[in-house]
Design goal:
Elements: E1 3-6, E2 16-21, H1 35-47, E3 55-59, E4 68-75, H2 84-98, E5 103-107, H3 116-130, E6 147-151, H4 156-179, H5 188-202, E7 205-209, H6 211-216, H7 220-226, E8 234-241, E9 250-254, E10 256-260, H8 280-295, E11 300-310, E12 322-324, E13 330-332, H9 340-355, E14 359-364, H10 368-374, E15 379-383, H11 386-399, E16 403-405, H12 410-414, E17 423-424, H13 433-442, E18 450-454, H14 480-488
Parallel strand pairs: 1-6, 2-4, 2-5, 5-6, 9-11, 9-14, 10-11, 13-17, 14-18, 15-16
Antiparallel strand pairs: 3-4, 7-8, 8-11, 12-13, 15-18
Helix pairs in contact: 2-3, 3-4, 4-8, 5-8, 7-9, 8-14, 9-13, 11-14
Bound molecules: ligand BES, magnesium ion and zinc ion (ZN).
């Protein structure tokens, strides 16, 4: 999808799209339509209420710059959110694709509706992301992706916003496209190769630690979880060094279990296929790193992705095993399905030890309990630092990638104490499962400001996922826009 800007609505286009607030009978950003078509537009405005997501298309016969007009409802002005324009733009783009158009034009709403730079960014994000389709394995592809013209007065700020929004949207799309891959086509090695490819394109440092090295170097968590699979485990590290040389980096860690069967503590068969999405945390980190490098953000960021496949076999780790994690602490395994905390623990300790980061943020489809607690539209966060949580919350408000904090007090830390090792990898029954998992992670770091984001409920569309134009069935890329906003506002 190519994107360009036009100052006026006089240019030729297959369809010109405008937004309408509920019960206003006005197309935002346009004072007067050409007399030849204004009657049709007015009739159409009367025929629609402007409810959120409502779409009305008017054919325009004869010689006009636009062949069709599309009016899209934004709902009531007082109900506008930071997601409204993104959501509706996604719908418009999908409509343009459905009509098999080569291009569509969108009139930017005036600043009394929303900041224009923000609107332009949201139009691009919504349109681009909504047009992504996971059709890699369809032999017949319907992949026409119409180009977008944005009607807005040109300025440097707008041009910059367009470039940035395109990179962010591409980051989300990249994350979705690798997260959607089936487990037979995406092993830890595949993910490592994706990391290598984006590092070459965008001049990042990329290191891959192999399974044998991981074992030698004491990554006991990653080694134990991966030992049951014939697909080799990898630790993927991407470094973007565009900040001052001695400035401490931001470390991002993401769980990438390319398939989670549960291991010897085998999961039930129902929906086990969805455990291909247990790599979403890692895919989010890789997508963020791709965008960070393309945006050339003037900061230092390190992405660390522990990647394994959790399989049952004669070589698998077992309930009852006691393992030694990267930081030397020991863990009693009581359930091999609680594997994410083991691989993350190693990666977090490694990140803190080798990079002395300013901040560590991790993403993981860590616990089913998070879905019970917060459902499919809000991610759980657990942190040891209020300032960092506040920043993440601000980015969450701006991007509408929703998060909610859960507490982490000593009582929860006590719940994972083991009789025979330093910790056990499960809490007490099902009580506070998301927090006891986070308590395990908390043990991996000393005192670096850290936020853990449990994306189990939001990383892909599930039973209670709210419908969104830019999130069709499959991986959502949750976290990419959230953390890019955080990094851009440092
Ligand atoms: N990958 C799962 C968590 C998960 C389950 C995410 C369903 C999304 C949907 C994780 O590895 C896991 O199995 N966790 C266990 C932990 C338990 C054994 C303490 C869980 O949540 O049941
Ligand atoms: Mg598991
Ligand atoms: Zn898992």
């Amino acid at each position: 999808m190519k994107i360009k800007i036009e100052n006026s609505t006089k240019k030729k286009t297959e369809i010109i799209c405008g937004f309408v607030l509920e019960n206003t009978n006005k197309v935002l950003g346009i004072n007067k339509f050409d007399t030849k078509i204004s009657a049709a537009v007015n009739q159409s405005l009367k025929d629609m209420e402007g409810k959120l997501g409502e779409i009305n298309i008017i054919p325009v016969p004869g010689k006009n710059p636009a062949q069709r007009i599309l009016l899209a409802g934004l709902g009531k002005k007082e109900n506008l959110t930071n997601d409204t324009i993104r959501l509706v733009s996604g719908k418009i783009a999908q409509k343009a694709r459905e009509l098999k158009l080569k291009e569509f034009s969108v009139i930017t709403p005036p600043s009394f509706v929303a900041d224009q730079v923000l609107s332009v960014s949201q139009i691009i994000e919504g349109s681009k992301i909504a047009l992504y389709k996971f059709d890699k394995f369809k032999t017949k592809k319907v992949n026409n992706s119409p180009n977008l013209t944005i009607i807005v007065s040109k300025s440097n700020k707008i041009s910059q916003a367009i470039k940035t929004a395109e990179i962010i949207a591409n980051g989300v799309i990249f994350t979705k496209s690798i997260a959607n891959l089936p487990p037979n086509e995406c092993t830890p090695t595949t993910l490592a190769n994706f990391a290598k490819i984006i590092s070459k394109k965008n001049k990042m440092k990329c290191s891959i630690i192999s399974e044998s090295e991981l074992k030698k170097k004491g990554f006991g968590g990653i080694s134990a979880v991966g030992q049951g699979s014939k697909n080799e485990s990898k630790l993927i590290i991407l470094e973007h060094n565009h900040g001052p040389k001695n400035e401490k980096p931001i470390v991002l860690v993401g769980k990438a279990v390319t398939f989670d069967t549960g291991g010897i503590s085998l999961k039930p068969g129902d929906k086990m296929d969805e455990m291909k999405f247990d790599k979403c945390g890692g895919c989010t980190v890789i997508g963020i790193m791709k965008a960070v490098s393309e945006l050339k953000l003037p900061i230092n960021v390190v992405g660390i992705v522990p990647s394994v496949e959790n399989m049952p076999s004669g070589e698998s780790f077992r309930p009852g095993d006691i393992i030694k994690l990267y930081n030397g602490k020991t863990a009693e395994i009581l359930n091999t399905d609680a594997e994410g905390r083991l691989i993350l623990s190693d990666a977090l300790s490694y990140g803190e030890k080798h990079y002395s980061p300013k901040v560590i943020i991790d993403f993981a489809t860590l616990t089913g309990a998070c879905i019970v607690a917060l459902g499919n539209n809000v991610a759980g966060i657990v942190s040891n630092n209020e300032k960092l949580t506040k920043k993440i919350n601000e980015s969450s408000k701006r991007t509408t990638e929703e998060v909610w904090e859960l507490p982490l007090t000593q009582d929860f830390m006590d719940m994972i104490k083991s009789d025979v090792a330093d910790m056990k990898n499960v809490g007490i029954g099902r009580a506070a499962g998301t927090i006891t998992a986070a308590a395990f992670l908390r043990n991996a770091i000393e005192d670096t400001p850290w936020t853990h984001i449990d994306i189990a409920g939001v990383a892909w569309t599930q039973a209670a996922t709210k419908e969104k134009s830019y999130n069709p069935k499959g991986a959502t890329g949750f976290g990419v826009r959230l953390i890019l906003d955080y990094l851009q506002n440092l």
